[in-house]
């Protein structure tokens, strides 16, 4: 009997499974936006220093536009999308002190696994937009202040000589599980003290393909040479502003030599090694909301001897 094959990625991916309409066609319709921001049916999500407010540990606080306007001017509202006819906005209230907040704030990663796929994806979108606005208050060309337009999806330089338009950006990054036969490589970041071992990740450089970025990052961080690279899936990662593109890669030279700066320790793990490490609490896997965890778990769920199509 031929060995089983593996190809598809696990369907569960936090922040990436939202099926809401982003309403892009309405962003420049001032009359429609004014109407929605005057409607008591619309929902506004206050966001404070990139943290959303929650009524409890699992329920995001939403306000009517009228109530939200008591916290900040609605000209700051960012259109997030439309769900079953209801329009949703994010509103930055970072100018308030923490003791003035109407509810407890939470970092999205702390609560994401308790949210629906749709809500986690929409709030991830809102967090990414919040970071982008904060980072583009001034024009990168001339230094003049910028002003938000198009329902928060454009910032324009207010210098009439410049008037450069700034659009939301995301930074492409690769994240890779390196495989060598029946074992995978996991690495520990130098900045953490707990025994959390993860996959190898890094940003794509200008003029570089994703596959070359995978090989370069793995070689730089853990010294392992890789050959065939197999794309698995992508995940928006607004912490602060990345798109993570996940890969499996085949090792061609398994010798490890960590860089000592980003990575302090790396090792090869069989599936049994992972189970043993988890039971002994000498190993912590990547957080459940991350594509890194999915890359590891999908490999762990393969039967022994499985042929990975595209990575033979």
What does this structure look like?
This protein has 312 residues and is an alpha+beta fold. The chain has three domains: 24-124, Nucleoside Triphosphate Pyrophosphohydrolase, CATH 3.90.79; 136-169; 170-302, Nucleoside Triphosphate Pyrophosphohydrolase. It is built from seven helices and 16 strands. The protein has helices spanning 30-36, 65-68, 108-111, 117-135, 210-222, 271-280, 291-300; strands at 5-6, 43-48, 51-54, 78-83, 86-92, 104-106, 146-149, 154-157, 165-166, 171-180, 183-189, 200-203, 225-237, 242-253, 263-270, 307-308. The strands form four sheets. Strands 10, 11, 12, 13, 14 and 15 form a six-stranded mixed beta sheet that branches. The protein has a five-stranded mixed beta sheet with strand order 4-5-2-3-6. Strands 7-8-9 form a three-stranded antiparallel beta sheet, with no helix packed on it. The relative contact order is 0.15. The mean pLDDT is 95. It comes from marine metagenome.
